[in-house]
Design a protein that fits this description.
By secondary structure, the protein is an all-alpha fold. It folds into two domains: about 30 residues; about 110 residues, no CATH class. Helix content is about 65%, strand content about 0%. The protein has nine helices and no strands. The longest helix has 24 residues. It is elongated. It starts with a helix and ends with a helix. This is DDE Tnp4 domain-containing protein. Keywords: Signal.
């Protein structure tokens, strides 16, 4: 039979090995699949192209990243490219969508996207003005029974 000091050393070694093994398993991280929150200090432009943020887009902007990019492409022709601006045009569109989809107001929108409240108010209003001007080309009601049936068939496919 081993001596008591040897048993104590063996018990301590076993405990230390068990703790080290548990820590090794706990420190292993899986790849991020869906990210539903962003830190305001994160560069918004970098997450626009990362597919793991699609859940954030759907939850807060009420559209997928693909739809967001299509909307930005439609709106871009109305906004001149200004190289010295601190925040991008895409961030202004994101602020607008976030503001329209939440009930928190401009302060919440500005905080969520890491901009000032004043910048948020100015840019959200500018994007909404352009959306108002685009209403004739984007909103069209069917004028015949055949057009209504095409639309209803499209809804059935969803």
């Amino acid at each position: 039979m081993p001596s008591p000091p040897l048993v104590a050393v063996l018990a301590l070694n076993t405990a230390a090995f068990s703790v080290a093994l548990a820590c090794a398993f706990m420190m292993r991280r899986n790849m991020r699949v869906n990210v539903c929150t962003i830190d305001a200090s994160i560069d918004f432009e970098s997450l626009m192209h990362d597919s793991c943020y699609d859940a954030w887009f759907k939850r807060h902007l009420r559209c997928s990243q693909k739809t967001f990019h299509l909307l930005c492409a439609m709106l871009r022709r109305y906004f001149p490219v200004v190289p010295y601006k601190k925040y991008s045009f895409e961030r202004a569109v994101a602020c607008t969508l976030y503001h329209l989809g939440s009930s928190g107001g401009f302060r919440e929108t500005a905080l969520a996207l890491g901009v000032s409240k004043a910048w948020c108010i100015v840019n959200v209003n500018a994007v909404i003005r352009v959306l108002f001007l685009m209403r004739a080309e984007c909103i069209k009601l069917p004028t015949s029974q055949a057009e209504w049936e095409i639309i209803s068939d499209g809804f059935r496919q969803i």
